[in-house]
Amino acid sequence: MKKLLLFILPFIVLTAGVWFGYNYYFGGKDYYTRVGTPTEIKSGKFDTGEKYTQYDYTQTAFDKKGEKSVQTMREIRDQPLRINAYLKLKVNPRKGVLSWEEVSESTVPEQALKQLNN
Asked: Which residues of 51-72 are buried (b: 16+ CB within 10 A; e: fewer)?
């Protein structure tokens, strides 16, 4: 029994450490927002000489319970995001917006949708 415990215990501790570290750096809470106009547009060049356009968005976002949060997104793309599109944001409290995806209005939780449409 002791040998089995000595084998399993380090595995459990290591797994818990990896899970905690992943959630700390890459985990986050889901928020929903509707795209407005970019708050700032910047142009520049990469070191390779290729031109880029950066669009900054400061959006009011809501979680599934309808709690408000203001989020800032920076996007380097050819065109700005589609106005009035619904986005699902993954927000880390330490890093801000980690990722986003465009979703349909029907997939936005009811409380968040009610706040977005006010």
From this structure: eeeebebebebbbeeeeeeebe
